Amino acid sequence: MKLDLGKQVLIGGAGFVGSHLVEQMIEGGAKEVVVFDNFTRGTRQNLAAAEKSGRVKIVEGDILDRDAVVKVIDGAEGVYHLAASWLLQCVDDPRAGLQTNVVGMFNVMDACQLAKVPRLVFSSSASVYGNALSTMMGEDHPLNNRTFYGATKIAGEQLLRSYAEQHGLNYVALRYFNIYGPRQDYSGAYVSVIMKVLDKIDAGERPVVYGDGSQAYDFIYVGDVARANLLAMQSKATDEAINICTGKKTSIRELVELLRELTGSKTEVEYRPAAQQFVTDRLGDPTRSKEALGFEATVPLREGLKNLIEWRAAELSRTPS
Fold this sequence. Notes:
The protein is an alpha/beta fold.
């Protein structure tokens, strides 16, 4: 995607989605990309390839440092807010989750308003929906959330809406479904099943699935999510939250069987009584993202998982045991 944009700031740009977004920006010809990250979860290694372009500037800082946020956003023509405490982190330390996801959100939003930034793209989450009350979740699905993480994302969306009303802040929020792909870690409550299954397969042990494996989700490849961010920045959609999903549902049983096939594993799957489950079913409606952003997911699950497996193997080979 060809980009003709001025200074672009990625808050949390060294993480899973952010690093892929940086790479796509560089490939598209972006002239100035600024990554602001505290490296709690993101890594400099994630940005190593993009840094070689000479068009990526890395600023180490925290979104709870208001002055630092204001400074880095000054002069930006577009801001992407990707930094967050994720679901399990919010379970373990809800106060820290509140600070990062709500106070940090306010700092970014307020800095954008002060600097008169033309547009802000916010990484929200399908967690705002909670358990499905209809087969396919559209943006008008009730906010049936019961998690602290989901509550902070709802708060972020509402803060943005208030600033759009009060100050005319031009923003769009993207409700990501279950993202997977290279550079993912073990912190996602749902995508982590992929990494844990691969760990078991590598060890020659039986992959473990909690429950009967019928719980199903909408898995979307990280490269598609990064592209959705670029489309959102260039779209005319404003003051709304939009699903970023495939519209295709995959059960955990199907996911594990595909991983076994791709790795050539002969070990049988072990099913155990269900442990904690935050959501049992999640399928997104991609209609609005196509209409408003011109976005459609293009990477099939098989291809995306193959990319993830190859990346993981390369990482393991270069990391001392």
